[in-house]
């Protein structure tokens, strides 16, 4: 398997663009998968610079219904026909985040599905566990299993009159089941990265987690939560960890410090064999 980071919060290469978002092109023997599309056409513009031909995409996975992971999907059709697009049915709910002054801003999918027939006609709704190809699964509705990862704070869903805390049931892991073990991909890990990893282990108990590629939403995590998270990753003996996007630069540095050669802080423009 080879992965290409098409869009991320950071970059360090000439002619490669960055934005607050995530998009990864995954080359696998059973399918070429575009995992998320960032918030704009950055991934489309970076792909040829990285030698990635998006016309080879067999399917698209939207990890959850936030603008920085789904906003760029409309740009895919400028040069390609849409393949199957896998999204949890709750991804298209109205979603909000709380501002420092207590007001709410919209952070959901920024394009109306009804106005983009190419997307609408190729949507494939997922639920708890969906097999999309041999050895490739999408796993959503991730349960809470550790006390230091509670309800995602500051996120809401619903209509204008009736908003409720967003439990992020639409966030789905992309899990590859291989000879080395499990390779787990996550967009933001809003339910908590340890909750996500525990769920993967529960669903596939006969395999260890070999690779973790994820935005982990640790940018504002407390020092204790970050310490517990890293300790869980160490205890799980995960062989390769690639922290991206919303993990946060401090959390990435701490992971590199404790995980050493097992941690690969990649960014937009980077490719790696897993």
Describe this structure in words.
With 274 residues, the protein is α/β, with parallel strands linked by helices. The chain has a single domain, classed as 4-Layer Sandwich (Metallo-beta-lactamase, Chain A), CATH 3.60.15. Helix content is 20%, strand content 29%. The strands form three sheets. A seven-stranded mixed β-sheet has the order 8-5-4-3-2-1-17. A six-stranded mixed β-sheet has the order 9-10-13-14-15-16, covered by helices on one side. A hairpin with a 2-residue loop joins strand 9 and strand 10 (136-139). The chain starts with a strand and ends with a strand. The model has no long low-confidence stretch (mean pLDDT 95).
CATH fold-level name:
Metallo-beta-lactamase, Chain A
- The second-level CATH architecture is 4-Layer Sandwich
Strand content: 25-35%
The major pleated sheet works out as:
7 strands, mixed
Strand tally: 17
**Number of helical runs?**
7
> What's the mean pLDDT score?
95
Looking across the biggest beta sheet, what order are the strands in? 8-5-4-3-2-1-17
CATH class: Alpha Beta
Query: CATH superfamily membership, which one?
Result: Ribonuclease Z/Hydroxyacylglutathione hydrolase-like
Helical residue percent band: 10-25%
Structural class, please?
alpha/beta
Order of helices and strands: EEEHEHHEEEHEEEEEEEHEHEHE
Indicate the overall shape.
globular
From the N-terminal CA to the C-terminal CA, the straight-line distance is 5 Å
Number of domains: 1
Ranges with pLDDT <50 over ≥5 residues? none
Summary keywords:
seven-stranded mixed β-sheet; alpha/beta; Metallo-beta-lactamase, Chain A; 274 residues
């Amino acid at each position: 398997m080879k992965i290409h980071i098409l869009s991320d919060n950071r970059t360090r290469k000439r002619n490669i663009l960055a934005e607050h978002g995530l998009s990864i092109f995954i080359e696998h023997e059973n399918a070429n998968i575009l995992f998320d599309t960032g918030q704009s056409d950055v991934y489309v513009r970076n792909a040829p610079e990285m030698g990635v031909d998006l016309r080879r995409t067999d399917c698209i996975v939207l990890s959850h219904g936030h603008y920085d992971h789904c906003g760029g999907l409309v740009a895919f059709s400028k040069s390609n026909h849409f393949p199957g697009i896998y999204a949890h049915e709750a991804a298209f709910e109205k979603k909000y985040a709380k501002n420092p002054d207590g007001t709410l801003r919209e952070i959901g999918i920024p394009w109306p599905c009804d106005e983009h027939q190419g997307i609408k006609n190729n949507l494939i709704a997922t639920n708890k566990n969906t097999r999309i190809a041999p050895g490739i699964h999408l796993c959503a509705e991730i349960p809470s299993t550790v006390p230091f990862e509670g309800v995602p704070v500051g996120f809401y869903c619903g209509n204008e009159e009736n908003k409720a805390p967003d439990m992020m049931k639409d966030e789905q892991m992309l899990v590859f089941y291989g000879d080395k073990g499990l390779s787990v991909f996550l967009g933001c890990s809003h339910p908590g990265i340890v909750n996500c990893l525990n769920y993967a282990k529960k669903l596939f108990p006969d395999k260890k987690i070999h690779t973790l590629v994820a935005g982990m939403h640790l940018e504002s995590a407390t020092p204790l939560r970050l310490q517990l998270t890293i300790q869980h990753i160490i205890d799980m003996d995960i062989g390769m960890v690639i922290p991206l996007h919303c993990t946060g630069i401090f959390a990435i540095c701490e992971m590199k410090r404790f995980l050493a050669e097992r941690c690969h802080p990649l960014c937009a423009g980077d490719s790696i064999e897993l």
